[in-house]
Amino acid sequence: MKNLCASFFNLPPFRSSLTLGRLATGFATAPRRGRLFLAAILIFSTFIVSCKPQISIKAGKSDDATILFSTGFSESTAKTLQTLTGSDTNAPLFNKNDLLQLLKSTGAVNTSAALPGPNEIAASGTLPQVSKNPLYQTGILTKSEKSLSLTIGPKEISAFYELLNDDAKSYLDLMMIPALIGEKMDAKEYEDLLSSMYGPSFAQEIVNGKLTISLSSPDGRRTLKETVPLGELLTASEEKSWSIKF
Known about the structure:
three-stranded antiparallel sheet; disordered N terminus; 11 helices
């Protein structure tokens, strides 16, 4: 399968490395490579592995859709993630320019990004052709002339995982996501697992976080908004879908 940067972000492929964040992406310094890796993973972690993710998708009139997303971590969790990816723990977790570059390389237009806090980011962009985007191929995002859907479950998470190269997969492997590895456990059991590896504060922040999802029609008259516990999604054995018709 094509890797995340080659197919999703249209960047030079990652090369194998034993240390996460030390990725030969063609950029000059290791800290920058770590930031780019974090920005790339952000697209996926916005859905399932951050403490307060939000995603809003507005259907366009043709095959387009505008996506707005934001996410953030506490200072302690941010430092844990930076350590795992080999990034500078004294630097901000996210870099606005790196994320803009990645968004544009997907073919997204009208992109924007902001840093509400040192470990928080908000960004948006329009996908001109949803049906040709990797998110469509995974089943996570689907759109027709009269409907818009977002689906998250073991099948969709696994399909996205297969887009990643070995280095990016290694990051998600560290999270031991039950819905990805096929391990049956409830949210409390998953929290205990993360706690044993990375500490209780990290585990609580990930599992107890909530994902806010918003979908809207092209004219904005039809909307759907729902908040879902991350622990529920991360340990799901069946897919969960949100959809609007217009």
